[in-house]
Design a protein that fits this description.
By secondary structure, the chain is mainly beta.
Length: 452
Amino acid sequence: MRTTGTVAILAFAALAAAQPPAWPCFRGPNRDGAAQADARPPLEWSNTKNLAWRVALPGPGASSPIVCGDRVFVTCYTGYGAHLDDGGDFKKLVHHLVCVARERGAILWQRAVPGPLPHKARPMQLTEHGFASPTPATDGRAVYCYFGRAGVVAFDLDGKVLWQTDLGEPTKGAPPPTNTVEHKGKVLSLRWGTAASPLVCGDLVLVNASEQSNSIRALDRATGKLRWTYESANLEGCATTPAVVAVGKTQQVVMCLGGAVWGLGLEDGKLRWQVETGTRGGMSPTPVSDAERVYTFGGDGKSFALWLTPRSPQGAATATGERGPVDDRRIAWKGANVDIPSPALHDGKLFLVSQSGIGTVVTSRDGKTLVTGRLEGRTGKVYASPLIAAGRMYVVSRKRGTFVYSADEKLRLLHRNELDDESVFNGSPAVDGPRLFLRSDKFLYCLATRGV
């Protein structure tokens, strides 16, 4: 592992007082896809209506924008992989962090971090999400970016590099993954490129480094030094962002991977519990939680609602050797699943959208399905995760615009919004009061009702 900057601690401590981030990370301030209660993003927009500004980005990306004070941050990539038929030189891949003025849409600064690859990427990665999929995270003092093989890089709000840390390699001789998928008698690789987003919690930056080292890693927020790591071959194909939940007076890191859900101690990374799920394949949706349960989705199988504290009188925690304790008493219910987009949790309901445009609403208490079916308006393929704001559900499709539905058990189509620029939208939206921020493979947009 490497870190850059011998005075990282001093530099970090010398930063100005933290600005309260309006949208600090993937899935927003509560990490559940729901905006603050006072958020009032527009219902309608187009190239001529409620488009506050649009700024061209240096390259494509599938990450979401984040908002901190008067600045919006978004990541991109250049040099390789922008087009399948002319991907460029994989040794010239460069990652970018772009800082944009929230009010006027001007690029304040951008920083480039080389990230050359050891070999050409798979066509699936080039066509579906590229090399800027992890959403950056901020604590109001710094911005933390996960740049694949270039590692995690921390910048101050003016673009100065505070530290850079690589994420290691898998342990040699480790057992192979059991979370495998077969097709026509062959085991398919689940390595489709870095996609999980970093998460800041207290003095740690949590990273799902499945693509580099089959591990979950906790880095010191001030220096980038490794505080703990937990490794498993079954993290292969896992693109979920770590979730942090409160369990009594402690905090735990919840990870959903093929075959199981883990609960790791936040301070030491030790496995506290796991629930076997039987799921297979790549895991993409990020878990969400409330005060009592955590909700996990993804892969080939059921979704799970798990008690943060075991409640079921049936079953018992059993010792399973190297895999740690299995505790089926945590299972509250099993139910509907989704594939790529992460769920949104709001008002006791889970709002689910599949990549094929199927919308589902279930109650968080017992998993009862209130509505399910193809969303009105023919969304086409959806990679972005749904947003709940102002009583509405915003669904950003890849090529057919943004669809706005009622955030209830009816999911009525309220409006379809299109921006006529032939862009592809893979990133999830961000909200700051009356403003909605979208990113495509070409632009970053700010949508706001005129006069607001």
